[in-house]
Amino acid sequence: MLKKIIITLLAVVVLGAAWFVINFTVLLPRDIPVPEITLPTAPEEIERGRYLATHVAVCMDCHSRRNWDYFAGPIIPGTLGKGGEVFDRSTGLPGVLTSKNITPYNLGDWSDGELFRAITGGLQKDGDALFPLMPYDAYRTMDERDVLAIMAYLRTIAPIENDVGDHELDFPLSLIVNSIPLEAELSAVNRDDPLEYGEYLSTLSGCTWCHTPINATQQLIPEQSLAGGHDFFMGGFVVRSANISPDPETGIGNWSEEQFIARFREYQGQAGRSIPLGEEGYNSLMPWTMYADMTDADLGAIYTFLMQSEPRSNKVTIYE
Ligand code: HEC
Ligand code: HEC
Predict the structure, then answer these.
(1) Sign of the C-alpha dihedral, residues 209, 211, 217, 222?
(2) CA distance 219 to 217
């Protein structure tokens, strides 16, 4: 009897393991079709793409080299889009990821459909899954015009020769990553509604992600949305995102819209890109120098959204 139970249990374990491996390696990632795409050619659309990629969605934040000797790691001139920023185990990641080269040097032989699928769906050209540090889950519901504008802009930047290797992920994440890519479900956002547009921008530019704490499986905790306290490991210290909910005591509830916008303008221009590190070498992962050139209207929309979100009482110690 006991022997029978043990054999049955073993069979269940073996079958379970086989299912796991087959599911995550053969069935996944899902096969997302490569769509037919026509990119805009109007200069205003390409300019909007540049603006979004550089100052809002900050693709260029992760996909260029950064000078971490200065506060908030400004982009090193001449590295735009070449990739090569490394995110490794010292930042708490279960593996090593390197941001890819998104200049035409790498993307030149990708079809527009393949590029669209990578940005909004999370598949590489060959159909392998990208790790969601590349925030494709946030881009999945982007406004269609915005994705196309960003793509049209990327096609115009200078090619920079730089070969970037593939990610190395620890088991079981190396298999689980295959379950994350999903087909895009684009939206059409109303840019004239500051609340709707502000929520959209807050997701697109990563404010919501960085300013919401995560649980053990790296999922945002909705009950603490915008309450801050999301930990980031930066070479020897932890920097924690601030509470940007409208709680007057522990959040930004007492800030006026002008104060909010002025906080971003501190990092504008050459002066904003030359701010020395804080005491003990404290730095911030927030790409302030890039958001610094967001328009008043866009920062204002984000402010409107933040102020109408749920106030969360949560006192955050930024550095530890
Ligand atoms: C938080 C950092 C981050 C941001 C922001 C980001 N990316 Fe990425 N991106 C990455 C990383 C890291 C990879 C590589 C992931 C991997 O190897 O699994 C990547 C991969 C890619 C790839 C795949 C290239 C290839 O050769 O496989 C494309 C295309 C891309 N990103 C475009 C964009 C665009 C466009 C934006 C802005 C809308 C953007 N990324 C924003 C970090 C980022
Ligand atoms: C990569 C993560 C990251 C992203 C993306 C990010 N932040 Fe932050 N933010 C931080 C961290 C960490 C801090 C604390 C250190 C500092 O002040 O830079 C911070 C600080 C702030 C502060 C300062 C609060 C104070 O009391 O001075 C504000 C305001 C803010 N963020 C708003 C935003 C908004 C709005 C966005 C989106 C446009 C955003 N953040 C995107 C990580 C991030």
Answers:
(1) negative
(2) 6
Q: Token match 């990629």: residue?
A: 53
Indicate the average pLDDT of the chain.
94
Atom of ligand 2 nearest to the CA of 243: 24
Average pLDDT over residues 285-312: 98
Ligand 1 centre to CA of 224 (Å) is 27
Report the separation in Å between the CA atom of 24 and the middle of ligand 2, taken as the mean of its atom positions: 35
Predicted confidence (pLDDT) at residue 92 exceeds the cutoff of 90: no
Q: Is the pLDDT of residue 61 over 90?
A: yes
Structure tokens at 24: 């995550």
Query: Which atom of ligand 1 is the closest one to the Cα of 169?
Result: 18
Q: Is the pLDDT of residue 14 over 80?
A: no
| Probe target for ligand 1 pocket from 63, 128, 204, with the most ligand atoms within 8 Å of CB | 63
Residues 111, 39: contact at Cβ < 8 Å?
Answer: no
What pLDDT sits at residue 7?
77
Q: Is the pLDDT of residue 270 over 90?
A: yes
Question: Which residue has the CA at smallest separation from atom 31 of ligand 2?
Answer: 242
What does the chain come to in residues?
A: 320
Closest by CA to 28, choosing from 129, 137, 113, 125, is 129
